Amino acid sequence: AKTSSRIADTQKCLRVSGKHNDLEEVGQDSYHHTMFEMLGNWSFGDYFKQEAIDYAYELLVDIYGIDKNKIYVTVFGGDKIDGTEPDEEAADLWARFIPRERILYFGKKDNFWEMGDTGPCGPCSEIHVDLRSAGQRAEIPGKELVNKDHPMVIEIWNLVFIQYNRKKDGSLEELPEKHVDTGMGLERLVMILQDKTSNYDSDLFSPLIRFVEEQTGVEYTSDYSGEVKSDIAMRVIADHIRAVAFTIADGEMPNNTGGGYVIRRILRRAVRYYYSFLGVKEPFIYKMVPLLAEQFAAVFPELKAQETFVGKVMAEEERSFLRTLDDGLKRLNALKVDDGTLSGEDAFELYDTYGFPFDLTRLVAKEKGWRVDEKAFIVALEEQKSRSRADAAKTMGDWQVVHENGDSEFVGYDQLEMQDIRVLKYRDIEEKGKTFHQLVLDKTPFYPEGGGQVGDTGLLTFGQERISVQDTVKENNLIVHYVDRIPENISALALGFVDKKRRKLIENNHTATDLMHSALRTVLGEHVQQKGSLVRDDYLRFDFSHYQKMTDEEISRVELIVNEKIRENIKRREDRAIPLEAAKSAGAMMLFGEKYGDEVRMITFDPGYSVELCGGCHVQSTGQLGYFKITSETGIAAGIRRIVAITSEASESYINDQLTRLNEVSTRFKNPDVVAAIDEMLEENAALKKKLQKLEGAKAGAVLETLRQKVITVNGRNVLAERVDIEDAKAVKTLLFNLEKEISNGVFLLGFVSSGKPQLMLMISGDLTRDGNLHAGKIIKEIAREIKGGGGGQPFFASAGGSDPSGLDRAIDGLKNHI
Ligand code: ATP
Ligand code: MG
Fold first, then answer.
1. What phi-psi label fits residue 798: left (phi over 0), alpha (psi between -120 and 50 degrees) or beta?
2. Ligand nearest to the CA of 16
3. Distances in Å between the alpha carbon of 1 and those of 43, 452, 576, 595, 773?
4. Measured in angstroms, how far is the CA atom of residue 80 from the centroid of ligand 1?
5. Closest CA to ligand 1's atom 1
6. Residue 472: which H helix or E strand, with range?
7. CB of 158 closer than 6 angstroms to any ligand 1 atom
8. How does DSSP classify residue 62?
9. pLDDT tens digit string along 440-482?
10. Are 642 and 634 in contact (CB under 8 A)?
11. pLDDT tens-digit profile of 237-283?
12. Which position among 73, 355, 505, 631 has the lowest Cβ density within 10 Å, counted as fewest Cβ atoms?
């Protein structure tokens, strides 16, 4: 692939979890967002501090015309523990443009960049702009407000000088090559260039705020004191719509884990704000998608292209969270509160099981005149957090270098066996109390997990030593092999053997995925977009956008097309490195959210039918797939369907299993025409049922006659306690109602067994329930103990079911104790 040592770009950036988390600020202040565009220039071993500083100054002052007297810069002040000196080099470079008194030194927290505990890092130099009025600037010098969270003295650009590598023991080593990574927030820049004092007043956000105003009829007043909640809500909405819509357009779906949970949380935060402070109780922000898509049509066209889809996903998420909010409110309303204080446990339960945000709990509690035990809530929250942190803890050892540190080459498209392999480096990783071993090789036939395709497994031999490869993954440019142990003979040349059989099955499923993707677009339409894919040896899974359940007929048509392509035994055409533009004009399917290089690998099975850009492994010709079968089609989220399918051996045995079952059925029926046999049986069954009901009815009539005779008088009450030989509960109930109509002052108890389970029904005349203080529900509860059962009901009618039929007579007998 072609590489560049200098790059300039814009990245969509989310700062809502982990190390950088601005979520709680967003909406409160004027310059932090959940999603912002970070403009950057990069040097990979090319220019360093001087050029980075020159470029930054030139762009801001000479080109954009920002007043240089309002600019402050910070440089790294050194760190005792790390043994690093102040970055005088950067300070001197700045001093060529900016007076020394506006060059400020800050410590590690502000001016040393590192992403993890280990890895590349280095000092940074930030550019701040003082946007206050001349009067204010004369009163308090700007340098006292830098890095003090002042909304008018803000950082806009950070220049990071990557010059060290942090090792596992915490020490720093100089990197052989130095790099530059800068980041400038577009939204802050636009605010400054448009002469505004808040990002939200720039034209990036104001159309969105106007929209909310129009839809809700609430006026936006640009208040930042925190008093005007509707202002905060409007900023939250104008901000969050961007994060949620773009993330979904980039292929992430709201759900309960990882990235999906992040957008779910952002979207819920928006819902909570409009629900609480703008009086909106219905899905709302999805309505802004078209406006946003239009705004960004020329920059990020992926949103416009998926506008309907993104809107549907958001509306569905909003709807379901609004339901949760309602449930949570009901739960809150039902809570018992001692001393006017809602306990921390209750607040945590609301938060944890109902997704009910704490400040909403507090708000509702306040309306009810309750306090909330916030301390106890935080304790419960912290406990949960440390539980999940412990689960995720992962420690990585340093790489131990065996041979020179280079890239690893993948040769597994053509070769499944390989000799003369060298280990470049290895390390141990500890995760959830388990140790894993990783090897990086100079060249490897093992495919690293990617593009939905699982990683290869197999064997490495170092002389006599056999090491099993359990998985293969990609980390940046490295292909990392998970092995059962680190070989003793680590510097020996190794042989590698991919598990061939497994790889073949994986290839079958990968090719099937591509063939099916095209078939889905043929059968369902061009709106079908891949939303996720898993290619394993035993099955494939494919998620795609489509609005309703596929019909059986559509599924059959897709299967038919794919199987036709299999039978045509089409040879694979592989273009390993063709220019992206050429691939586009060949009609290759492009996925949104996927990054493609200038040169791509294009896999073609029939140029008019399936042309995909794909780094995965495919069969030589489609006949190898044998037979393709879809085993399930389900919905997994609003507008997203999931297909699971199988090929070759798996589909063969699937079909055989089905046939075996069918054969068994027809053997039982002694009739090869199973369908006719089943129809016949169903008919017979229905006729028998009818007959039975009739008989039961007739029997009940006869039984009614017998029962009438058995009514005895006790204390002036007409009492009946009998067992009847009827299975149908409805018939027994009818019997009781008929008795009650005929005989006044009655207490009638009937016991019977239905499908092996003892049942009781008790009916008491209205007068007796009022004057005689009898309660059928209470009585039946008592006597049902004999049948090991429970029940209840109203004063005049109750029923009970149990599990012990042997106690039925005793239960019936028990009635006399109650009258
Ligand atoms: P701040 O202290 O203002 O939060 P930061 O130190 O977190 O900024 P960097 O990590 O240096 O910022 O990011 C580089 C640039 O990205 C910043 O100078 C700023 O312009 C922009 N930026 C950072 N965080 C946000 C955010 N949450 N919203 C908008 N822009 C941001
Ligand atoms: Mg920050």
1. beta
2. 1
3. 18, 22, 11, 14, 91
4. 26
5. 155
6. strand 465-475
7. yes
8. I
9. 999 999 999 998 999 999 999 999 999 999 999 998 778 999 9
10. yes
11. 999 999 999 999 998 888 877 788 889 989 999 998 999 899 999 99
12. 631
